[in-house]
Every structure is written in C-alpha cells, then in structure tokens.
Amino acid sequence: MYLKFQIKEAHIMKFGHFDDLNREYVIETPKTPYPWINYLGSEAFFGLISNTAGGYNFYKDARLRRITRYRYNNVPIDMGGRYFYINDNGTVWNPGWSPVKTELDAYECRHGMGYTIIKGKKNDLSAEVTFFVPNGYDGEVQQVVLKNEGSSAKTFKLFSFAEWCLWDAQDDCTNFQRNFSTGRVEVDGSVIYHKTEYRDRRNHYAFYSVNDEIDGYDTDRDSFIGLYNGFNNPEAVLAGKATDSFADGWSPIASHYKEITLAAGESKTLIFILGYVEMPVDQKFEADGKTINKVKAKAMIEKFDTPEKVAAGLADLKASWDKLLGILNVSTPDDKVDRMVNIWNQYQCMVTFNLSRSASYFESGIGRGMGFRDSNQDILGFVHQIPDRAKERIIDIASTQFPDGGCYHQYQPLTKKGNADIGGDFSDDPLWLILSVSAYIKETGDWSILDEMVPYDNDMSVAQTMLEHLKVSFYHIVNNLGPHGLPLAMRADWNDCINLSCYSDTPGESFQTYTNPKFKAEGGYSKVAESVMVATLFTYTGPNYVAILKHLGKDDEAAAAQAEIDKMKKNIMESAWDGDWFLRAYDANGEKMGSKECEEGQIFIEPQGFAIMSDVGKEQGADKKTLAAIDERLNTEFGLVLNNPAFTKYYIQYGEISTYPGGYKENAGIFTHNNAWIICAAAYAGEGDQAFKYYSEIAPAFTEETSDIHKTEPYVYGQMIGGKDAGSDIGRTGKNFGQGKNSWLTGTAAWNMVAISQYILGVQPDFDGLRIDPSIPSSWDGFTITRQYRGAEYKVTIKNPDHVCKGIKSVSVDGNAIEGNILPVFDGGVHNVEVVMG
Ligand code: BGC
Ligand code: NOJ
After folding, report:
1. Exposed/middle/buried for 647, CB within 10 Å: 0-12, 13-18, 19+?
2. Whose CA is nearest to atom 10 of ligand 1?
C-alpha cells in the first residue's frame, strides 16, 4: 500500500512531507489533488515536471522554442511528458505511475531545488529516475536506475518516450494543415534527432540519447502509440517491441527500446539526455549537405555519460543552490516559517525570475510576455540572491518605458521590446520601477545604477539616466490626476480587472485593451475615474524617490517631490477616506467604488496596506481602524478576500472584475499577492500577531495540512485561493473555499518573501545599511538570522524577553552597543549582532 495519506485528524490531509535537510518535498502518492510540479533549469534550457513526470521542455522561450509537446487542459489532466515504460512479462507500468496507471507497490517523488527524483516499484523491480538540467547545460539529464529487488533473475523491456513539439508552441497546436507534413528526424545509433525545419530556416535541433546500445526505437507517434490508443497503452509497449518507425511528417517522437536482464539484486543505470543544440549556419551539415552536424550533440552526450559524471553534475547544481540559499537563513520557533524562508519561498522567487508569468500548469507558455509591473515586483523577491541579474532585468524593463513615464504594460523576453498589442496606460506601472530600483540599491549599495543610460521605447538615441526614468515615473502620476487630485485609473491599476474605462458589453473584447468610444476623445481612458490604490502606492513608493534625491544632494528636487507626496496624502484623506477604511476608486461617473455606500464591493484590500505603510491619516487612527475593518470584513481561515461583499451581478462600469463568479480571482477571491501588503502593513503598525495570523493562513507550508482542500502544491504560493463566497453563484457558498489555483508564477512569491523576511522577521535592507525591526508573534521568545549583505555576514540573535510584537530595546554589534537599529555596513567579515526587543 503506497498511499500513505497521513490523516492525523479529520481535517488534516497531506499527500507527502517536507524533507528540510535535503530541501525536498516528498510526495507519497501519484494521486495528488492536482499535478504537483517542479522546475528544472535556471539559465536557458528549462523543464516543467510533475510528480508523475508530465510536463515539457523549452529553450529560453516557452512559446517560440518549445522542444517537447504538452497538452494543456487535457483529459485526463497532465498529458504529455517524459515517460519511461516498463513491460515486465506483460505487466506494463511507469515509474511515475502515469500514464499507464498500473498500481505500484511503491511510489515516491522528491521535488528538490532544480531536480526531481521519481521512484516506482512493481513486482520486485524498482526504477528510480533523476531528472535535472545541469548548470550551464542545454539539456535535461534523466538517469534511470533499475534494480531487481527480487530473488531471481528478471528480463523486461524498457521504453523511453518524448514527443517533439514543432518549435513554435502556438503554431504547433493550431496549424495542422502544415505541421502534419513537416516533422523530420534522424537516428544515429542510440541518438534520435529532431530536425524539423532544420534544412531550411532553423539553425537548431534537439536530440534524445541514451548511453547504451538499444534494441530498437520509434520516431513516429502513430506507429508507437497507435492511432486509437493513448499514452496509457502504447501499442509498441504492449507488444513488447519497438517498431523501428521513421517519422516523415505527422508527429515525430523519440522512443528508445531496450531489453534488459537483471540477476537477483543486480541494478543497471542508463542515462538519457534530452538536449538542444544551436549551430552556426555554415556548419549545420556534414559534407553531404544533408546529414546534421552532430559534433555539439555528441560533446553534450559525453558530458554526462557515466553515473559519476551525473553525480558530479547534480552535486554542482546543489552547491549552486547552497550558495543562493545561504544568503538569508533564519531559525525561528516555527519550522514552517523556516522552510518557507530558507527554502521554498526563495526557490519560488528564483522561478518567477526565470519564467515570469510564461510557463506553468496554469500559464500555457504561449500567452503573455513579461509584465512591467510583474517583473519589477519580482525583483523584490530575488535581488539579494542575484543582484547582478536583477540589475540587468531592471534595465531591460526600464528600457520599455516611454519618455513621459508611461510604460508598455508587457514586453517580450526574446526581443526585450515593448508589446504594442497591449500598449500602455496602466496607471500603476511606473511606480513599481521606483520600488525595484530602490530595492536594488538598498541591497547592494550600488548607486551607479542611477547613472546607467537607459533608452525609452528601446530607442537608445533618446536614452536618459535611470534617475531620469525614476523622475518621469514619479511625475507620470503627478501629471495624471483626476477631479479629486487622485491618480487617474486609466485602463487598470494593479488590479487588471478593475477597468473603469471599459464599459464592454460585447463578448470577446479585451477588458484591458478595449476602451469605450466614449473616452476616445479624452485620449482612450476616462479623465474622471481615479484609483485610490495608485494614490497609496504613490505615497508608499514616493519616499524612496525622495531618499534617493537627498542622497544625491538634490535637496530642492527632493523637497518638491515630498510636497507632492504630502499633497497626495491630504487628497486621500479628503476624498478617499471612507470613515473606517480607504475607498477603492472613483468610477468614470464619479461614483465611489469600495465604500460603505456601495451595494456590493464595499471594501477592497488593495489601497489599505500601502495607506497604512505610508502613515496616511495615522494621526486620526486610520491605520488601526483599517486593520480592524480588514480583520472583520476580509479575513477568513484561508486568507484575506480581495473585496467584500462579492459582486453578484455584472457592473459594466467596473470592467472585468464582476465577470468572475463571487469568490474567484479578483472578485472576492483570496488573491494572495495583496494579502502580503496587509501582512506588511499589520507588521508595520506593530500588530505582529495579526501579521503572522494572515501569513500563516496562506503560506504554503501551513496549507500543507489541508492539501485536499487546497489542491495545489503545498510548497509554493498560487495566485489565488477560492474565497468565502466561492460557490455562492450556484447556491453552494463555501464550495471551493480554500481551493488554490494558478500556482508558481505569481507576484505573491516576491511579496510574501518581503512580508515574512522584511516586515515580520524585520531584516530590512535600507539605503544606509541593514535595519533590524521585527514585528513578530508575541509568543515567540526570539529567533536567529544569518544574512550576507554587501560583502559581510551578519549573525543576528533576536531576543524577546518581554514577549512584545514590536520594539527594540538594544542592539549590539560585535559586543558594542549601537544607536538605532541600522547595522553598519562592513568591509567583509562575520559580525555578531544581538538585538533585544521590548
Ligand atoms: C486575470 C488577471 C490577470 C490578467 C492578465 C485577467 O483575466 O483575472 O489576474 O492579471 O487577466 O491579463
Ligand atoms: C495577475 C497579473 O500578472 C498582475 O499583473 C495583476 O496585478 C494581478 N493579476 C491582479 O489583477
């Protein structure tokens, strides 16, 4: 019995466990409530892999350079992957259970940092497959260890399987009239080459190899699987023999076939490599002008053709993660916090750096480019790990800005150019650039980023310094205010689904790009609709710009900017304070959105946290009132809903938001990204218990115990969790409440990293040094932090003898008391810091 569900109490349901020592999540059953995936690769070659080995590979761009095929939204779910089939005297099974789904005698999947190990056992034969993309390598290594664990010899057949995608993933799943006639392969010994379009316009091919002789192969899908069979019962596997098929059009695949005999106790290791090769145009072919030049592929295969080389590659990968994860390490009274901060949240931040919002089990890899706001926010989560790449990323993003401070909302990673289809005019975009640049300087102390010459709209002839980009960002808000002196909402702010200039009643219109002709004359969006969220984001991010100007000695400019922030605060209190919380917006009719006066959607989460963190109305107690209202109206056991009450009908003047049934997505779903803003705000306001409560409602390690309800991976954040109104649309309020969706690629990763590490645990990189200012659960006695920062290592012990949430009595560095709580910047070395709260 391998289904080791650990049902500790009626409502505790896990499907695996954390192995913190190895930094792995160990899945104990293939039948997780949704495919639980991992990412392989972090440079150019990537793989998505589920706990049953589903998923696919691509090189750099999941749309334009897709290597293997995957079928999204399929029945059954998770179809397409790298499958190993074993035919053991008629018993056919996969080490990862799927797609054959023969009940296994043992199963385990270990998702680690950049690698996955799947192990299955049937009838005394075990198969352990280790999947990873080695550092600096454009291929996925798959090491298969087969072991006869029985007491007599065994003879069985092994088949590998990968299905090639014809490179452009969008075209691959739509343009069949062409694609069914273009697929081409070459077979050379044990290596199968995918050379579709290589003869003409492509200078790249892929290959699938194994480091041993084979007894056959298949390269044509229909020959291997059979036209009326599926991945679960491929004809060749059932027949126990490959057909040596050769693809010519249709769907090329790569399958190796090998007959294996193992004595009792004997094991055999095979190393498969799925690789990608680019060739200079003049070296594409051998002398015959037809056969592909395999020199590079052969070198790649040789690099990992022994178990020793594989072990070394894996060790090297682990060492690079040791380094990345060694920068920030904490030890708190709660092991769930430790595993989030030290392992999984940081890991997820790196994945968002690599993939942005492109390829997950919810993002099909053919959709959006990289978001201006998304990518800037992602920086906050990984800048401490890879500051140089963060800098490069920030410059790439800023290069798509317009001279007036507006921004392309998205850009394409391959071209790095702004995406004209979507255009600009998202009201929040420019502000996130101020935040990411500030975060970079606070981490590194590298002020030179401000002097970088950065183009506008990728046109170097109109380049300006990064500082100038920050200025136009700041003033883009100031120059685009509405009737109440609040920022114009434009197409949308952070909430893509509040589209106050849309008024769409025609199916298929994009809420984000469509503008009612009514606003055409006004430049495409309403000059009345205003966003309170952008107002508070402005008062939150603005002070960073002021601090930068002051540091540069530009006191006049700093004072002028500060005056704008002060004015905005005044405007917010005059026109956007609803008595107990902040309004969400004014719509294009000048009506309040997110007010007690509204029938539905009376309170929204987004403006509140930034208002609290920038002390708007603090002297009138706005912060505490707002926090109380949030707790009363938005909080649930699974997190804070985005708005309340949920919209139960379509409000044309609000755009996409009320197209979602209540409880989902932006209509009163638990949008975990903005939960973090409240966690930060509660911590900022000294409410450490409240902050931690919200944190533990959504942090994956805490949701592990209700994995049956939560559904998605318990080791990473998802974008959304069903809110308390989920199901209300069908009269079953509570159905799907707590159910996660859209895991992995979300700004939640970065913001919750900020929330837990900077606001709750209080390790705050600042312009002048590392500030320590925890806001923790009062029950904690203290905790320790190790932090590498600007070349030095700080070993910080925090004691909480009085059991306060926030407040610092004393700080000593290397035995000497210091004033305040900003740790000095050192020239290297290890420094012991003791902080006493109280
Ligand atoms: C979703 C948003 C998302 C947007 C992206 C909307 O349909 O609800 O969460 O940001 O699409 O284009
Ligand atoms: C997801 C998008 O990627 C992000 O840009 C947006 O802020 C949120 N959805 C909220 O709509």
Report:
1. buried
2. 496
Please, are residues 640 and 696 in contact by the beta-carbon 8 Å criterion? no
Selection from 174, 171, 205 nearest residue 188 by Cα: 205
Give the closest ligand to the alpha carbon of residue 373. 2
Residue 665 in contact with ligand 2 by CB distance below 6 A = no
**Cβ contact 111:25 at 8 Å:** yes
Does the C-beta of 497 come closer than 6 Å to ligand 1?
yes
Question: Phi/psi of residue 340, each to 5°?
Answer: -70, -55
Question: Any residues with CB less than 8 A from the CB of 452 and at least 6 apart, and which?
Answer: 395, 465, 466
Ligand nearest to the CA of 658: 1
pLDDT tens digits, 731-773: 999 899 999 999 999 999 999 999 999 999 999 999 999 999 9
Q: Which tens digit of pLDDT belongs to each residue from 4-30? A: 333 344 567 999 999 999 999 999 999
Q: Which pTM value belongs to this model? A: 0.97
Confidence (pLDDT) at 272: 99
| 752 in Cβ contact with 407 (< 8 Å) | no
Q: How far is the CA of 665 from the centre of ligand 2 (A)?
A: 10
∠ CA 421-398-549, rounded to 5°: 145
739 C-alpha to ligand 1 centroid (Å): 18
Pocket lining: 777 vs ligand 2, CB cutoff 6 Å: no
Give me ligand 1 centre to Cα 404, in Å: 26
* Residue 759 per-residue DSSP state: I
* Average pLDDT for the chain: 96
- DSSP 8-state class, residue 363: S
Q: Residues of 813-824 as b/e, b for ≥16 C-beta within 10 angstroms?
A: beeeeeeebbbe
Provide the annotated active-site residues: 496
Q: In this predicted model, what pLDDT tens digit does every residue of 200-211 receive, in sequence order? A: 999 999 999 999
Under 8 Å CB-to-CB from 533, ≥6 apart: which residues?
428, 493, 494, 495, 584, 585, 604, 606, 607, 610
Distance 820 CA to ligand 1 centre (A): 43
Task: Select from 224, 231, 214, 197 the least CA-distant residue to 82.
Answer: 231
How far apart, in whole angstroms, are the C-alpha atoms of residue 652 and residue 657?
9
Burial of 601 (0-12, 13-18, 19+ CB in 10 A): buried
679 vs 376, 665, 666, 688, 764, CA distance in Å?
20, 19, 19, 9, 15
Does ligand 1 come within 6 angstroms of the Cβ of 409?
Answer: no
Our answer on whether the CB atom of 493 is closer than 6 Å to any ligand 1 atom is no
Which residue minimizes the CA distance to atom 7 of ligand 2?
494
Asked whether 373 lines ligand 2 (CB < 6 A), one says: yes
55 neighbors 81 (Cβ within 8 angstroms): yes
Tell me the ligand closest to 748's alpha carbon.
2
- Residue to substitute in 363, 375, 380, 496 for testing ligand 2 pocket (most ligand atoms within 8 angstroms of CB): 496
- From the CA of 506, how far away is ligand 2's center (Å)? 23
Atom index in ligand 2 nearest the CA of residue 496 equals 11
Kind of pairing, strands 45-50 and 55-59? antiparallel
Residues in the chain: 838
